[in-house]
Amino acid sequence: MVKHILDDMIVKCPSRSQGCQEEIPRGTVRDHVTRYCPYADVDCADPDCALPVSRKDFAQGRCLHSRIYCPGCRFAYLEKDKERHHTNDCDLSLLTCRYCRLKIFRYRAEKHVEECPEMIFTCEAADYGCDFNAKRPAFDEHSKSCPLVKLAPFLKSQNEQLEAHRKALAQLTAKNNILETGLFNVTQTLETEMESSDAVVPPTVGSSTQTSDSTIHHLLYVQESLRRDVERVSIELTHLDAKASMMILNESLRVKDEMAHTNAAVNGMRTQLHYLTIGSQQRTLPTRSQPASERSQLGASVTTSESSGSLNPRLIRRLSDSTRQETKL
User: Fold this and answer.
1) Which of 18, 40, 192, 200 is least surrounded by Cβ atoms within 10 Å, i.e. has the fewest?
2) The pTM is what?
3) What phi and psi values does residue 54 have, to the nearest 5 degrees?
């Protein structure tokens, strides 16, 4: 019985996204899709083509999967999608304005709706009681003279404040309910304890009432003191977090300054070392660039001096100077 009830339900065709607007009983959906729906996918009429095509296009008896170009926007699409392209996608397809019945291009439709003189407008204060609606010229005149339009910003702000108060009232009501529930539980617990104590030592009625009231007030005082302590700890944690963030920021700035000074000192040392290296190369360059004849004469004189046992003091001083300079470097 349930199955029959479900089969009698009216549903939309599964091919609605392809363009079918039929609404049929649930029990006939399969027959509608497999036999009658013009937008359902079937095999292409060309046996060599494996792509699907809608039933309404299958009647043409040829393959519609060739790529063609729109004569208006030059967009490439499959031939089977020609109708959908011109209906939904092509910017140069012509549409008819439902107000002024003017033919316009699709890409100008939104702008035309804003400028259409025949379009019906409702008053801006319709939410506050004004039921005026008319075409653009009369609507412009009404907007200048309608008192509710001038009050609309004020009424809107009042509604926003009223909504905020409603939300705050709902939150306070929820908190009040929680506190009342907690107080009721505490009262029930105290009454149970008092009943158990009464069974052992029955006190007078006045003393029991005073004891229960004082106990309740004491518990409420303890609860309020605990709440204040929690708020105080939360505030102190916030201050500590801010101090820690400031200390970290100051320390990072100090480290950055020290790193900058260190980098400057290293760069200065690199510059001095570079100058010393260049000076050393310039002083040793003339000795290396002497002609081979001079170097041979110098070697011969050194050999003759060594063989005779007398060394040239000038040559020895030059060698010692160059050795000392290399040692300094």
Assistant:
1) 200
2) 0.29
3) -70, 155
**pLDDT per position as a tens digit, 197-216:** 655 444 444 444 555 667 77
DSSP H helical segments within the chain, as ranges?
A: 2-7, 29-31, 55-58, 82-84, 109-115, 136-145, 147-200, 205-288, 292-308, 313-328
* DSSP-assigned beta bridge partners for residue 30: none
Under the banding of pLDDT at 50, 70 and 90, the label for residue 316 is very low
Closest CA to 117 of 102, 136, 104, 132: 136
- Helix H, strand E, coil C: the string for 7-47 is HCCEEECCCHHHCCCCEEEHHHHHHHHHHHCCCCEEECCCC
Q: How far is CA 195 from CA 203, 205, 207, 213, 216, in A?
A: 11, 12, 13, 15, 15
- Block residue for tokens 């006939």: 28
* CA atoms within a 13 Å half-sphere pointing along the CA-CB vector of 285: 7
Other C-beta atoms closer than 10 Å to the C-beta of 13 total 20
The contacts of residue 18 (CB under 8 Å, 6+ apart) are 39, 40, 54
The backbone torsions φ and ψ at residue 134, rounded to the nearest 5 degrees and listed phi first, read -165, 180
132: Cβ contacts below 8 Å, ≥ 6 apart = 122, 123, 139, 142, 146
Cβ distance 201 to 211 under 8 Å?
A: no
